[in-house]
Each structure stands twice: as structure tokens, then as C-alpha cells.
Design brief:
Layout lengths: L1 E3 H4 L9 H10 L4 E8 L10 E6 L5 E11 L7 E6 L4 E6 L11 E12 L4 E3 L8 E3 L3 E3 L2 E3 L2 E2 L2 H4 L21 H5 L1 E6 L11 H12 L12 E5 L5 E4 L7 E8 L8 H9 L7 H13 L3 E5 H7 L6 E6 L5 E3 L5 E3 L5 E5 L2 E5 L3 E2 L12 E7 L2 H11 L4 H6 L7 H17 L2 E4 L2 E3 L8 E5 H8 L5 H10 L3 E5 L2 E5 L10 H16 L20 H15 L3 E2 L5 E2 L1 H5 L26 E2 L4 H11 L6 E8 L14 E8 L17 H14 L5 E5 L5 E11 L2 E9 L1 H6 L7 E7 H6 L16 E10 L4 H11 L4 E10 L8 E10 L7 H19 L2 E2 L4
Parallel strand pairs: 2-3, 14-25, 15-18, 30-33
Antiparallel strand pairs: 1-13, 2-13, 4-5, 4-7, 5-6, 7-12, 8-9, 10-11, 16-24, 16-25, 16-26, 17-24, 18-21, 19-20, 21-22, 22-23, 27-29, 28-29, 31-32, 33-34, 34-38, 35-36, 36-37, 37-38, 39-41, 39-42, 40-41
Helix pairs in contact: 6-7, 7-11, 12-14, 21-22
């Protein structure tokens, strides 16, 4: 929010320099992000806060008074203005559009007060997009010499408006330095969600008063009403009090639509609001001043809509099929939860957000019905999101506006309208208040303050701080009874309210004044989470293996997970855990597998790279027999695809990753975990290729299934026609079998004996079965058995295959041929007995 310093000073005396005040406010939690110096000299030393702005030379940029406007003798679009700059009159050539109505009139009835840049003044060049600084020089323009300019807001750096020169208020004295007359500093304040009360000048003034020890001067909310009573000229009907706890109306007649006084326009412009006319500007002005948005209706339009009868203003939910064209020109289809301001003829405005086009104030408006209301902030927030719209009013209402504010703001606004539009205010207000807000009171023990802040403050100190923030405080023994002002919707009740009040005390007392001290609280000893440490160990190994970790959504749909099966149908009839308030239509329930998210991530990455290796560790949500809540085991998903190696200058293995590459990753992982009795067995699974799928077993327990993705599933996930290796494993089972400690054997000092062993086995016998038999029967001499060849064909009989193994024998002494031969014979006997294997070349 942008807050002009001059506007702040209307409500609180300020003795600090702007930079020092910005620092004090920031320390108190009201963060000042930047200071913009408008016409005044900025500080020359570097500051923590961002500084910008243009300084106006006090001798060369002054108030001028145009006493006469004449036609330029040689240019239809230029005029000659006779300007008194306080030291004399000079002729200024200008083409300002808003001076043309006076063309040819000669002397004016009342001088027009303007901002005048004398020769040598440095101003912005308003005719170039970058607005470079330029120096005003004497020049002859179409035969007439001119050494000064009458300035627009753009040339002075006030705003981007270059539609005409500034017309100052009549009280401006010619020759007065413009910096003295209207120089200002604008505080750019970041309003955090818990400080919505400060989204107005009066809120910022309260903070300034609290941090500087000054008092706040509240604006006058009384108004001078001399017209007929408002009763009988309008009425209010609130159909949804919970959405609209209060609604206030005032009526002002015989208004004259015109420009606002320049002091008000300047405040609005510096605050980031574009002036329109005196009525609309005043609603914006009071909103920025008090934080209460208002809306002005053309009363005569409402009477016409009501059939020449007094209008009834109705607040209600939208009906099916209703629509509204809002002030931004958009026609909006309304939803049944949108709260509307209506009359008997239909919709007038979207409550708390934006008015309608039909009933807006125009240049023809003569009678104004002014609305001030309180709205349910949650509904306003929901409506803004659904309608994809934003507004200054919606910004404030969506964060909460107290029902006490509408009556004050309406009174303030109609009085300003009376002064600046010449209107007559109807006597009284229409005020419907079906849900009065109860005052919030909090019991605050002083011991609670000491315990939360770590410092001891007296009752007088605490009371002084709270009263500086307009809380009412009444001592009650060792506690204070605090009544919260209606501007503070952020203060809760009970222990929450106590914490809120202590936070207020801390920020005004000064966080920098609270000493640092070591905590005296007992710290619980660290507990080892073996499951977490195990998961971190798995993460580290997979990352070292070249895989990247991903984190995917835990929310999904049954239809997305059904895509993992060949037929695209769901697995079983057990319902998923559904979300009560899903964030999107494709995130309606909790996942039962990690594979869908992994495949979606693979598909996205393959658009940008050829090789993808990734893994995810996270919970899945499975039906539980122990109650309504699901079990949440931690699972591991791994996915690989693409060439075996990334291209590099020395050449690379560009063969595609296959089933055995994936199996190698798993073998490395289980080896790092020092798992015993690990086995891989062929398996069938609806997500995988029927001939390239296996399950991982640890001590006979199935840990997971992996393999090459089935082509139908691959197409369903829009993956390219290449081998996609995928697997999912129960991490809890895997880690459960991992020993916390493992034995380390010394490196053997005696040489091994290597021997090849070729066996003929039935087609159904697996390499794993043969390997297990070789290792178990050859103990303790056999240290390793590795298959290096698989052969089918002549002379191997049909239904058989040949497996060639490299067997490593080793002991703590040098082995003899007889020892190796005895071990080999024992291995062959076991293979023949248990698997029906024969040495290749034998009967």
C-alpha cells in the first residue's frame, strides 16, 4: 500500500525524518519496502530502504497563476498563457488540452493556479517513453519566445498522466516553491495477511502513533443533513445475514459532477488510484482513508428500475442464470454462492467486489445513493477466485472489515460529497444490522507476558503499549482485562488472544530491545528413527548410482492408476481414500501406487532428454483392516529408460537400457544394504511385459515386482516406443531385513582358483537356482559363481539349455588340485540330485 506522508500527518504529528520513520515502522512489523520522494530532496547516504523520486528546484519550479489565455498567432493547437510566477508575468507557449476551453477568452475571471517550470528547471521529458530528465531552456516556438513550461503530473514525476497541465487549488500562492506547496514522501508498505487493518491511511497512522508515542486524530464522522428524511425514499432487505451482517445507505441529492479538488486528486494519485470525478473519487478516498470500501449508485436509475417507486436494496445469493456486467466491462455469469446487491428489477453489483455498469455514477448523475456494508470475507474471497477478478474493495473485504466501520465511513463520505459537490444530504441513514458484532475481551496475565517474551514488564508498561494501539485496558490483580478495538479483527480470544496481545507488546516494545538468552528448557534426547535413516541410506545409494529423486503428487484418481493395467481397468472394488475438498478434478483421492506419478514424470522428461533415471520414496495409502484410516507404508519406485550411457567424446555405450540393467541397480542396492538370501524369480504382472518381469525376494518375502513396461501401458501414458524399465518395492520390508551391523572379512592373501563349469539343465531351471546350489554345496571354498554364457541348440537336446559358470575357489591357504576337484565333484552331485543337471559333454 502506498501512503503519502502529508496524508498521514492529517491524523498524527510526525517529527521523525521519513527514513527513520520507515525504519521504526519496519521494526514494528509494518514493512516499508520503498520511499518515493515527490519534489523533496532524497537522502544522499545509502539507506536500507529503496529510495526514488525527483527533486524540484525550489527556485525554478514554483506555483504560477494564469491570468490570461490568448490564441497563438501562428498555431491552431497552441495558446499563449500569461503566467504570474510571483515576480512578474511572462508569456508561456503551451498546447495543454485542458487549457483550450479558455482559448480566445483573454483575461480570466479567476486565475488558474498551475505548476510552473522556469528556465533551467530539470523535469521529465513527457514526450519520450523512457522519460529522460531534460532542462527547460528559452526557445522561440512558432515565432513566440517562451522560457518556461506549465507542467503536467508526468513532467513532475507525480504520475504518468499527461492529458493536461495540473490545475492547483485556488489557495495556491504564486511564486511559492512547488516543493513547499505539495512536495511529499510516499511510503510503499507491504501489508502482510495479519495486518489487513493497516490497508488504509488511518491504520498506518495508528501504527505511527504507537511507535512514536503520539496520539491519533480521528476524522470527523458527523455530517450536515438538510434534506428530507431518507426513510420512505429507499429501503433495505438482507436475506442472508451471515453473508451480510450490516448494510448502511445514505442519500445525497442535487450533486454537481465535476473534478475533485486537486489536493484530493494528488493524494489519490500518490496512493495509486486514478481520479475520475468528485463522487467516485470520494468513495475511493474514504476507502483509502478508513479501510471501508463504499459504492455509489445513481439513485435516479434505481428509481427508474423500480417503476418510478422508491427502490428496495436487497442482498442475496445469485439465482440460476443470472449475470452482471461489472464496471470493468466484463459480463459475468454468476454462481449460486455469489452474494449480490440487487433491487427488485435485478442485480446491481457483486457484493464487496465491484459494482455494475448500469447503475454507476456518470456525468448526468444528480442524486446519489451511497452504500457501506460488511460482508463475509470467506465468501468474498471465494467469489473473487471463482470469477477470476480483483479489486481494491475485494482486497479489503476478503481480509475482513469490521461491521462497525460502514456507518462511520458513510457519514464521512456524504459530508465530503456535500462539501465538494454542492449536494444536499437526506436526514438520517438506513442502517440494517441483523448480526451485531460482540466486543472481544481478553484476560491477559502479566506472567503470560513474561513467560512468552522472556522479560519482565510492569503493568504500567504493558498498559501503555496496549493503549497506544487503542486497546482499552483495565487492571484486575495480576492480570489485565483488555478490550479489543473494532479495527483489530486479527486478535483472537482465550489463549490465542493472549498470544496475539503479547505479539503486539513485543513489536511496539521493540524486538531489538529483547535480550538474547539461552533456553533453560529441558531438551529431549535425540531418538534414532531407524526407518528414516534407512530411507536416507537408500536415497544416497540410488543418487550415487546416477538416479534423480522426484516427489510427485500424493493425490490422484482411480482412472489414472487404472491406466497401469493392460486393460485400463481398476484393480479391485475397494474404494480409494477420497478428498473432501480436492484441489483439482484430477486430484480427487490418495494414491495406492507410486508408478503412475513416476511414469508421468518420465514422459515429461523424455521431451527434453534421451536418458532418464529416477526414483521416488514416499507413502501410498492402502485399505486397512484396523479401522477407517488407511495404512501408509513407505514404498520405493525406480524408473530407467534411454541409452546405457550419456554421449561423450571417448565414445559411449548407446545400447538401450534393458531388464538386466535394472536388475543390476537392484543388486547393487541390496548389496549396499548387506541383505542375505536375495533371490529374483520370474513373475507376471498386468503392468509389465509378460516375458520381462520378475519379483524380488528377501529371505522368501516378496519385496516388489519390476520389469519392462507393457507396450499397452506405455502407449496409455503417451511414452515413446522404447524400453521403459520400472519397479515398485515395499521399502519397509526391504529395510526390515537389512542388518544394522554386518561382518567385514579381511582381504584374502592367497590366490584364488578360477574354473569354468558348463551344465545342461531343463529349460525351467533358473540361473538363480543353479547359482544357489553351487554356492551352498561348495562352501567354504566357493566364494563366487557367475554365469557367463547361456546356450540353446545342437548338440544340447530340445527342452534343455546350457549354462556356463565361472566359479571362484579361495581359502586362507593355497588350494591344491585335489581340494578343488573334491569341491567340484560335490557341487556336481548336488546339481544332479537337486536340479537334474549334467555336465556338458557327459551322457
Amino acid at each position: 500500500m502506498k501512503v503519502p506522508h502529508e496524508w498521514l500527518e492529517q491524523y498524527v504529528d510526525i517529527e521523525l525524518e521519513p527514513v527513520e520513520l520507515a525504519e521504526r515502522l519496519t521494526y514494528a512489523g509494518l514493512e516499508v519496502e520503498a520511499l518515493r520522494f515527490v519534489g523533496l530532496p532524497p537522502p544522499t547516504q545509502p539507506q536500507d530502504v529503496k529510495i526514488s523520486g525527483l527533486e524540484w528546484d525550489r527556485e525554478k519550479v514554483v506555483v504560477g497563476a494564469i491570468e490570461e489565455i490568448r490564441t497563438h498567432p501562428d498555431a491552431d493547437r497552441l495558446v499563449l498563457a500569461e503566467v504570474d510566477d510571483g515576480s512578474g508575468t511572462q508569456t508561456v507557449v503551451t498546447g495543454a488540452p485542458n487549457l483550450f476551453p479558455f482559448k480566445g477568452r483573454g483575461p480570466l475571471d479567476e486565475p488558474l493556479k498551475v505548476a510552473l517550470g522556469r528556465e533551467g528547471a530539470r523535469l521529465y521529458n513527457a514526450y519520450e517513453p523512457e522519460r529522460p530528465l531534460t532542462t527547460i531552456r528559452r526557445a522561440r516556438i512558432r515565432g513566440v519566445e517562451s522560457s518556461a513550461v506549465v507542467c503536467s503530473e508526468r513532467e513532475l514525476g507525480i504520475s504518468d498522466d499527461h492529458s493536461g497541465v495540473i490545475l492547483l487549488d485556488p489557495d495556491a500562492v504564486p511564486g511559492t516553491p512547488l516543493a513547499e506547496y505539495m512536495g511529499d514522501v510516499v511510503f510503499d508498505i507491504a501489508i502482510t495477511p495479519n495486518q489487513a487493518r493497516n490497508a488504509c491511511v488511518l491504520g498506518a497512522a495508528r501504527e505511527v502513533a504507537a511507535v512514536t508515542g503520539k496520539s491519533v486524530r480521528e476524522p470527523d464522522f458527523e455530517f450536515q443533513a438538510e434534506g428530507p428524511p431518507i426513510q420512505g425514499q429507499a429501503s433495505i432487505e438482507i436475506r442472508e445475514p451471515e453473508m451480510n451482517p450490516r448494510f448502511v445507505l445514505a442519500l445525497i441529492g442535487d450533486v454537481q459532477i465535476g473534478p475533485s479538488p486537486y489536493w484530493m486528486q494528488r493524494r489519490l494519485v500518490l496512493s495509486g488510484v486514478r481520479p475520475i470525478n468528485n463522487i467516485v473519487d470520494l468513495t475511493a478516498y474514504v476507502m483509502l482513508e478508513l479501510g471501508q470500501p463504499l459504492h455509489a449508485f445513481d439513485y435516479d436509475v434505481l428509481v427508474e428500475r423500480a417503476g418510478k417507486r422508491p427502490p428496495t436494496i436487497i442482498t442475496r445469493f445469485a439465482k440460476p442464470g443470472e449475470s452482471l456486467t461489472t464496471l470493468d466491462g466484463e459480463t459475468r455469469t454468476l454462481q449460486d454462492f455469489n452474494v449480490l446487491v440487487c433491487d427488485t428489477a435485478g442485480v446491481l453489483s457483486l457484493a464487496g467486489i465491484m459494482g455494475g455498469e448500469e447503475s454507476k455514477v456518470t456525468e448526468e448523475t444528480r442524486n446519489v445513493l451511497l452504500e457501506g456494508a460488511a460482508w463475509n470475507f470467506i465468501n468474498v474471497r471465494r467469489t473473487m477466485q471463482a470469477q477470476k477478478m480483483d479489486s481494491e474493495a475485494g482486497y479489503r473485504f476478503s481480509r475482513g472489515v469490521h461491521p462497525a466501520l460502514p456507518r462511520r465511513a458513510v457519514g464521512r463520505a456524504v459530508e465530503l460529497m456535500r462539501r465538494h459537490s454542492g449536494g444536499v444530504i437526506a436526514r438520517g441513514l438506513l442502517d440494517e444490522y441483523p448480526l451485531p458484532a460482540e466486543p472481544v475481551q481478553v484476560e491477559l496475565p502479566l506472567e503470560r507476558v513474561r513467560r512468552l517474551l522472556g522479560i519482565t514488564l510492569s503493568a504500567a508498561e504493558v498498559t501503555g503499549i496496549l493503549e497506544s494501539l487503542q486497546f482499552q485496558v483495565k487492571p484486575q490483580g495480576d492480570s489485565l482485562r483488555v478490550t479489543v478495538p473494532d479495527s483489530r479483527l486479527d486478535i483472537g480470544t482465550g489463549v490465542v488472544g493472549q498470544a496475539d496481545l503479547v505479539e503486539e507488546i513485543a513489536r511496539i516494545y521493540g524486538y531489538d530491545r529483547i535480550p538474547e538468552q539461552a533456553s533453560s528448557a529441558w531438551v529431549q534426547p535425540r531418538r534414532v528413527d531407524s526407518g528414516r535413516e534407512g530411507r536416507e541410506r537408500v536415497r544416497r545409494w540410488l543418487a550415487q548410482a546416477g538416479l534423480q529423486e522426484i516427489v510427485t503428487y500424493r493425490m490422484t484418481t482411480p482412472q489414472r492408476e487404472a491406466m497401469l493395467t493392460q486393460q485400463g481397468t481398476s484393480n479391485g472394488d475397494t474404494p480409494y481414500v477420497a478428498l473432501a475438498n480436492p484441489i483439482a478434478s484430477d486430484r480427487t483421492c490418495l494414491r495406492r501406487t507410486l508408478l503412475a506419478g513416476a511414469l508421468e514424470t518420465v514422459a515429461l522428461n523424455l521431451r527434453h532428454r534421451e536418458r532418464v533415471g529416477l526414483f521416488e520414496i514416499g507413502p501410498v495409502f492402502l485399505p486397512s483392516q484396523e479401522g477407517p484410516l488407511p495404512s501408509e507404508p513407505q514404498w520405493l519406485a525406480v524408473a530407467l529408460t534411454g541409452p546405457r550411457e550419456e554421449p561423450h567424446w571417448a565414445g559411449a555405450d548407446q545400447h538401450p537400457l534393458d531388464f538386466f540393467d535394472f536388475k543390476g541397480v537392484l543388486e547393487g542396492l541390496v548389496s549396499d544394504l548387506h541383505l542375505d538370501a536375495v533371490a529374483f524369480e520370474p513373475a507376471r504382472h498386468p503392468s509389465y511385459h509378460p516375458a520381462r518381469c520378475a519379483r524380488l525376494l528377501v529371505k522368501g518375502k516378496e519385496v516388489g515386482v519390476f520389469g519392462e513396461l507393457h507396450p499397452q501401458v506405455r502407449e496409455r501414458f503417451d511414452l515413446p516406443g522404447q524400453s521403459i524399465l520400472l519397479g515398485e518395492f515395499d521399502l519397509a520390508v526391504l529395510l526390515e531385513e537389512a542388518p544394522s551391523r554386518h561382518q567385514v572379512e579381511p582381504i584374502a592373501v592367497h590366490p584364488p582358483v578360477l574354473e569354468d563349469l558348463a551344465l545342461v539343465v531343463d529349460e525351467g531351471v533358473t540361473v538363480g537356482q543353479v547359482t544357489e546350489q553351487i554356492l551352498s554345496s561348495g562352501r567354504p571354498l566357493v566364494k563366487k559363481a557367475r554365469v557367463f554364457d547361456i546356450y540353446r541348440g545342437e548338440p544340447v537336446p530340445g527342452g534343455k539349455k546350457s549354462l556356463a559358470f565361472s566359479v571362484t575357489y579361495q581359502a586362507d591357504t593355497n588350494l591344491t588340485d585335489d581340494q578343488v576337484a573334491e569341491a567340484r565333484q560335490r557341487i556336481v552331485r548336488h546339481l544332479q540330485k537337486n536340479l537334474g543337471a549334467q555336465l556338458r559333454g557327459e551322457g
